[in-house]
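Handout, page 2. Input:
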Amino acid sequence: MIGALVWVGIGVMGGAGAYARFTATGMVARRRPAPFPWGTFSVNLSGGLALGVLTGLGVGGDALLIFGTGFLGGYTTFSTWMVEAQRLGEDGDAANFALYLGGSMLAGLVTTGIGWALAERIA
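Output:
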């Protein structure tokens, strides 16, 4: 059973992760203004890398809930990824649509695996 402090930690870290996402996507968008949503793409990949590191280090239990579910759940975003993909499709930008959908999935798996492998080497 999850204790009250863990739930509070998940909520607080979720808020911190959402703020970090907002900040990071804004920074990337200012540096790379383009039809391709580089901000969300980079946030989701860095979040996958971080989750791979947590997993590779063997983080579990309450710490994984707080940091993996809380912070990284707030930091990464499935809903924005889908809205941006839909926008690319509606705009008729087939190349960026395919790159964004496929690239996000493939690169997300790769970066998560890289994080996991790096952390296992360190630990």
